[in-house]
Amino acid sequence: MPAFGPSLLFGLGEGAILPVIALTARDLGATVAGAALIVTLIGIGSLLSNIPASVLTARYGERRAIVVAAGLSTGAMLLCVFAGNLWLFAVGIFLIGAASAVFNLARQSYLTEAVPAYFRARALSTLGGVMRIGVFIGPFAGALAIHFLGLTGAYWVGVGAVVLAGVVAWTMPDLPTVPVAPGSPAGGPSVRSILVSHGRVFITVGIGVLLVSAVRSSRQVVLPLWAQNIGLDPTATSVIYGLSGAIDMLVFYPAGKVMDRKGRRWVAIPSMLLMGLALLLIPLTGGYVSLLLVALLIGFGNGIGSGMIMTLGADYSPSPGRPQFLGIWRFLADIGSSGGPALLSGITAIAALAQGIAVTGVLGLAAAGVLWYWIPRTPTTAARSVRSRTVVRADGPAGPPAPCAPPAEPVK
């Protein structure tokens, strides 16, 4: 519960409010375009807060950062409840995104340090999976509260969930303090120094992560738009979207196990190949059954990639300096998340929806190519040797071998 409970609860809180943000904005007088813009403030808040979140986490520790993020999210949701005008509501939504950035970075950094290297992918895949489960459950809990309290009921569900997340996080044990070398800054290396020393990682694997995030965020827009384009009613669209999400949630742990035992490439590349090919197939669908089958393929491809970005970030992150590295890593991912739907929108405006979806599919194949080229080839024997060399000490797990180390010699 201390390891994954806060993420489940935080995801539940966010899932409860996401469907009603636009509706609340409309009630406060926003136009349709204005309501859509306010919804994007969550992503903007997260994007702009990743680097400050890394500094906060490095200075005060992961546990305190998680508790602070829960407190900030609680205050932001209360601001949304009592906002008397659209501007205050917009500030609350932006702060929810900022709190999410702090929370997710600190959770990832904490588990990376606390979990043995040979179990890392399973742990981080589970972290991503339980967050998705929370986001999936949240709208149902919010709908029940809305039935009795109106739109504000969803925000009260969110408040309760993030408060519980903070309480559970408070019970987590602190990570052991890493001795600081004489003359080193108290918070570890600066963000700038990490950016310089790990620049090659950011412009190689980091570009792959950016493309992965662009494809993942675009898929959430593609399915409902194409369903409407071929004449499906909202109920059928919701069923397709929900079943795709259900497949997504069922496969995160087996995927993490494969990454731990055979290497990251065994999941990262198939995930992007499946999503890219499925997106290319969407313009060829013309009815409910064909779109459902493609949506299930997208859900499976996305599901096996659960935790992939976090695992790669954990593999490459140095210690000390892990929070700063992960802040830059998440910043790249958020750029992709924001840019994917924007690219789809731009191409659709210039050409047509089918062409926009096809370009998104090509991005998926490009992501697979980048990850294939840059992720180290780790054979099964090398992956197993990580487990045999990992020593779990009383003061914390030993770090993994360098992720760019050459592959082990094949067994003869």
The overall pLDDT, averaged over residues, is 84
Biggest beta-sheet profile: 2 strands, antiparallel
Could you estimate the helical fraction of the residues in percent?
A: over 70%
* Proportion of strand residues: under 5%
Separate helix tally? 18
Q: Determine and state the CATH class of the largest domain.
A: Mainly Alpha
Instruction: Assign the CATH topology of the largest domain.
Output: Growth Hormone, Chain: A
Q: Give the beta-strand count.
A: 2
Shape: globular
Distance between the amino and carboxyl termini = 44 Å
Q: What would you give as the CATH superfamily of the largest domain?
A: MFS general substrate transporter like domains
The string of secondary-structure elements, in order, is HHHHHHHHHHHHHHHHHHEE
CATH architecture of the largest domain: Up-down Bundle
Secondary-structure topology with pairs:
Blueprint: H1 5-17, H2 21-27, H3 32-60, H4 62-82, H5 86-114, H6 120-149, H7 152-170, H8 191-197, H9 199-202, H10 205-229, H11 234-250, H12 252-262, H13 265-281, H14 288-304, H15 308-316, H16 322-350, H17 353-374, H18 380-389, E1 392-393, E2 396-397
Antiparallel strand pairs: 1-2
